Amino acid sequence: MKYLKIILKELKRKITIVFIHHGCVKPMRFSFSLPFLLVFVVSWTVFTLWAGFISGQHIDYWKVKADNKIMQIRMLFFAEQIQKSKEMLSQIRENDDHIRSLLSMDSKRMIIENGLGSGGPTPVESSALSVLLSGNINSISYENIAKESFDLLEEYKTSMKSYSEVVNHISAQREKFRYTPSIWPCKGVISSPFGFRLHPIFRNKFFHTAIDIANVKNTPIFSTADGIVIFAGWQSGYGYVVSVEHGYNYRTVYAHLAKILVKKGEIVVKGQEIAKMGNTGRSTGTHVHYEIHYNKRPINPMKYLSSYLN
User: Fold this and answer.
1) Per CATH, which fold does 189-308 belong to?
2) How far is the C-alpha of 306 from the C-alpha of 310, rounded, in Å?
3) How far apart are alpha carbons 106 and 100 in whole angstroms?
4) How far is CA 83 from CA 76, 80, 89, 120, 130, in A?
5) Average pLDDT over residues 305-309
6) Segment 10-68, tens digit of pLDDT
């Protein structure tokens, strides 16, 4: 009780605050009771803390909002880059179709049916991306960007598969061309075609399995494709003969030669000189008897001469 009386007595006291101006103005006095000052100090402290808390929340809100705007702008930029990439891949697809057409490869539909897959945006997807790029930045979402990125990756994989297939096809065709007879074996004129004719010596009708190309003696004879020499020597009726196995079921024969420049087992390349034109064996003049065999059957060499190739 004693301490309570002391506290109540002290609370009844007043505190005077004097503001003294260094001039002609009279001093200003303000008297306040101690309870009033205590309430004022506490209220001011609470208000200050509350204002600080609210200001902090407000600043965080604007900071988050600004960060979101920056993120949306970045996503818009990524969306634009994705659109540009898709346009580029679309051009690549058109070039791919054109190249396949030139190479007489399977159509795009055949490739898809065989499991290579397809890619590219559907009209709906392209429209959706156009909406994103229309300037309505608030409509951009991470899910949209993620989906477009995934579609772009799948389209890239498809394009790379198609590119690899085209490259492999070209490589295979190049190799096949190397081993396919496709040039003239020598300079000259065709003196006897492929097919039925009268034998120049025996005068009976028979099937001529080659073409005869005539020129002067020792005219260079060239291998018409890459391959390996499987015979180089004398053969009855044909005189000196060179036979080359080319692979891909092709074989060529060069007969009535004056001189052989290769030997059995030797690897030759297209355009390499392998013999000299002559008049050996049963022959009525200087020429080369040129045969092409496919699947062990003689075929007309005319369509394999370079001037007759498509």
Assistant:
1) Glucose Permease (Domain IIA) (2.70.70)
2) 9
3) 7
4) 11, 5, 10, 11, 9
5) 63
6) 666 667 777 676 667 677 776 666 676 777 777 878 777 777 777 666 666 677 767 67
Q: pLDDT band at residue 310, thresholds of 50, 70 and 90? A: very low
Mean pLDDT, rounded, for 188-196: 89
Instruction: Show Cβ contacts of residue 65 under 8 Å, excluding neighbours closer than 6 positions.
Output: none
Tell me the pLDDT tens digit for each residue of 120-173. Answer: 444 444 444 555 555 555 555 667 666 777 777 777 777 778 778 887 877 888
Query: Residue 116 in contact with residue 158, Cβ under 8 Å?
Result: yes
200 within 8 A of 285, measured Cβ to Cβ: no
| Amino acid (1-letter code) at residue 170 | I
Residue pair 289/253 in contact (Cβ under 8 Å)? The answer is yes
Q: Within its chain, how far is the Cα of 201 from the centroid? A: 62
Helix/strand/coil for 146: helix
Sorted by where each begins, the domain ranges of the chain are 2-66, 73-178, 189-308
How far, rounded to the nearest angstrom, does the alpha carbon of residue 155 sit from its chain's CA centroid? 10
> Is this prediction's pTM over 0.90?
no
Q: Rg of the chain over CA atoms, in angstroms?
A: 48
Q: Residues 281, 256: contact at Cβ < 8 Å? A: yes
Q: How many Å apart are CA 242 and CA 213, to the nearest integer?
A: 16
Q: Two tokens at 284?
A: 């009525």
Identify the burial level of 266 via C-beta atoms within 10 angstroms of its C-beta, where 0-12 means exposed, 13-18 middle and 19 or more buried. Answer: middle
Residue among 120, 173, 176 at smallest CA distance from 151: 120
